[in-house]
C-alpha cells in the first residue's frame, strides 16, 4: 500500500521547505503583521477616545458660550438701563441746576432792579428836593401876595423844571 | 412548483446514474487488464500518488510531462542525480528504473546483480516536493510583502487581497489560537499560523487541475506525518510540569497506577495517538476529496466504454456539474481542514501547557 507508507524522500522535501517557511514567516512576517494590527487597533481606540473627549469638550464650550452670551445680554440690558437712568438723572440735575441758576439770575435782577429803583427814587427825591428848594427860593424871592400870581409862578417854575 | 418538480426529476436521474456508476465501477475493477477499457484504478492512483515527473497531458498515447530531478543514493555506488525523463516509460538508467511491480511498485529501484530490486535512499525532487516548494515560495512572498506593508504604514486600512488575508490571520489568531492554547498563546502563534496557511495554500493549489497545481500534497501521508510531527514536538518539548505529572501520575485511584501502571500507559499512548489522529484525518479528508472528483469525472469514460459514447455524452453533463459542485465543496473543505488541523494542534499544544489548578 504505497498510499499509506510514508516516503523518506518526500518527508525530507516536506521538512526542509516547511522548516524554512516556518522560520522565515516566524522571523519576518507574523510579528510584523500582528504588531501592525495591534498598533492599528490601539490607534483606532485612541482616536475614538480622543474624538469622544473632543466632542465632550465641544459640548462644554458650546454651553459655556451660551452662558457667556446670556451674561453679555444681561450686561447689555443693565448698561442700557443704567444709561437711561443716568440720562434722566442728568436731565433732572440739569433742570434743577437751571432752576437754581434762573432763580439766582432773577434774584440778582430783582436786586438790581430794586437797587436801580432805589437809586432812581433817591435821585428823584434829591432832584425833587432841589427843585423844591429852587422853587421855594424863587417863590420867596418874589412877592408872595397874590395867590393867582403865586400859582402862576409855581406853574411857571414847574414848567421850567420840566424843561430842565 | 415547476422548479420543484424539475429538481425532483434531476435527483432521480442522478441517483440512477450513481447506482450505475457503482455497478460499473466494480466491473471496471475486474476487467482492468482488458484491452481498450478505461482503467479507473490506475487513473485515480496515478493522480493522487506522488510521481517522479509532473504529468501535463496525454495526446494520442504520448505522455507529455515536466521532468523533475531524481536524487538517489545507491548502497554501493554513492549519489546519483538525473532527470526523471531518463527513467520514464520503463526505461532504465545507470542501473535505476521505476519498479513496474512488486513491493516497490512505482518507486525508483536499483537493479541488483541477480536482477533483484533494491530500494536506494530516494531523495528525489518529486511532483509533491515541487508543489510544496511552490506553495512555500508563495507563502513567503505573500506574507513577507504583507509584513513589509505593515512595517511601512501600520495605520493604513488594508483592502482587497491583503485585507482578506489580514481578516483570515486575525480570525485564526483570535478564534482558534487564543481560546485553544490559553494565556501563553503568543509563543506558538507563529507556528500555528504557518501551519494553517501552509495547509490552506497547499490544499487550494491541489485543487487547480493544471500544471502549477493538482498535486495531492496534503493528501499524502508523508506530508501530514511531518506536520503532525511538528505539532508533536511543539506539544511535548514545551510541555509544562503539570502536563507531565498528568501523564505519569494522573489524578486517579492509586490502584490504577501502582503496581500496574494502567493509566500512565494510556496517557503515554495518548501522547502519540493525538498527532497520529491529526496525521490521518488531514490525509484521509484531502485524499477523499481528490478521489471523489476524479471518480465523478471518470464516470464519463466508464459509461462511454461500457455502454457507448451516446450515453456518455449525456452522463458527461451531469458528471461535470457534479464535479464542479465537488470542486466548490473542496474549496470549502480546503479551508475547513486547514482550520481543523490548526484548531486541534492548538488544543494539543494548549493541553501541554496546563497549569496546576487551585481547585484540586
Protein architecture, described:
The complex is a heterodimer of chains A (164) and B (360). Helices cover 92% and strands 0% of the residues of chain A. Chain A has 164 residues and is mainly alpha-helical. In chain A, helix 1 (8-141) runs antiparallel to helix 2. The mean pLDDT of chain A is 88. Chain B is mostly helical and 360 residues long. Chain B has helices spanning 2-30, 40-48, 127-152, 160-181, 189-207, 221-237, 241-248, 262-306, 309-351, and strands at 53-59, 62-67, 69-74, 78-83, 96-98, 108-111, 117-118, 121-122. Chain B has a 3-stranded antiparallel β-sheet, with no helix packed on it. In chain B, strands 5-6-7 form a 3-stranded antiparallel β-sheet, with no helix packed on it. The chains are: A mainly alpha (164), B mainly alpha (360). The interface between A and B is large, with 35 and 52 residues.
- Overall pLDDT metric of chain A: 88
How many domains of chain B, as an integer? 2
Number of DSSP E strands of chain A: 0
Q: What does the main sheet of chain B amount to?
A: 3 strands, antiparallel
Proportion of residues in β-strands of chain A? under 5%
Task: Choose one word for the global shape of chain A.
Answer: rod-shaped
Residue-averaged pLDDT of chain B: 83
Number of domains of chain A: 1
Percent strand of chain B = 5-15%
Let me know the largest β-sheet of chain A: none
Instruction: Supply the helix-strand structural class of chain A.
Output: mainly alpha
Low-confidence stretches of chain A: none
Count the beta strands of chain B: 8
Tell me the distance between the termini of chain B. 63 Å
Order of helices and strands of chain A: HH
> What is the N-to-C succession of helices and strands of chain B?
HHEEEEEEEEHHHHHHH
Approximately how much helix is present in the residues of chain B? 55-70%
The first-to-last residue Cα distance of chain A is 178 Å
Helical content class of chain A: over 70%
Shape of chain B: globular
